[in-house]
Specification:
single chain; 2 domains; 6-stranded antiparallel beta sheet; mainly beta; Protein Transport Mog1p, Chain A; disordered N terminus
Amino acid sequence: KGSRDDTGVGGLFGGSPDVRDDREDDEDWDDDSWFGGGSYTQGSVPRGYPADKYPIYEDGKILFGYEDKNEFGASVYSIGILYENGDIDTINAYYRDYLKHADYYTEDKQDYNGLMYYHTGRLKGYNFFFTVAEDPANDGIAVFIDLEEIPSASSVLKEYQEYAKELPARYPSAQFPIIDGGIVAGAREGTIEGKYSCLVSVYTDKSLKEILEFYESVIGSIKNKYKYIDEEYFTLSGETDNYLFSIRGYTDILEDAEVVRYDIDVAIK
């Protein structure tokens, strides 16, 4: 899990339902064209495509447009555009001007049977992969847009539910319950000076504040209490009548979704 499958077309991203897989044996197939010798008819932009976030340079011919869902229910879009008699520097600059503001942005340039520019990054809720390439066979510029929506934390955790671990039998669930919807990612038991201890790790879509407030409420009276919280981290520690404990949480990324991971460390006094 976590790998990204690029599912565009025309020899750039791999196969798609409308790409002719027999092109090696097809005398009409043109290896100099991103679109394989003009086998496409006019397509359209997928209905759900986020044009307000990823505008398309005008005057292009949409040769294909696909919309799908990934395993987490997030939207995936692939679009192929041909700009006949287009200027690669002008078209590439148009896309670069808004893509360059992305997180993790990169732009690469190659010259293989014509200039090619690749843009990757994360912007406004999507991972993107753009290619702007000269298409000598069509005397134009080919643009491929590949978007994958960042999934929600709840959808990712739902898929990961099947990997949840069981809590150890001796873990004090009554005093330190797992927050509703939390997934136990791991648990380790041991002894400290001959007394039982346990460390449990949990993933959740709850906020740091919600988790902190939940444990303050369920634990109740806490001696030698210490707590701290900021935008990325929280800690709560102290003593109950029977246990020493420390709970630490922080923001994390799982399958591109922002989640919270927290650890509960308890030991018998």
